[in-house]
Amino acid sequence: MSANNTVADSSAGTAGSGGSTVGTVEGVSPYDVDNPAPVIEPPRKRTAKTPKSTRGNFEMAAWLFMRLSGVVLVVLVIGHLLIQLVLDGGVSKIGFAFVAGRWASPFWQVWDLLMLWLAMLHGANGLRTIINDYAERPNTRLWLKGLLYTATVFTILLGSLVIFTFDPNIR
Amino acid sequence: MPAGTLYRGREGMWSWVAHRVTGVLIFFFLFVHVLDTALVRVSPEAYDDVVATYKTPVVALLEYGLVAAILFHALNGLRVIAVDFWSKGPRYQKQMLWGAVGVWIVLMVGALYPVLGHAVRDVFGS
Question: Nearest to residue B122, comparing CAs of B30, B63, B57?
Answer without folding.
Answer: B57
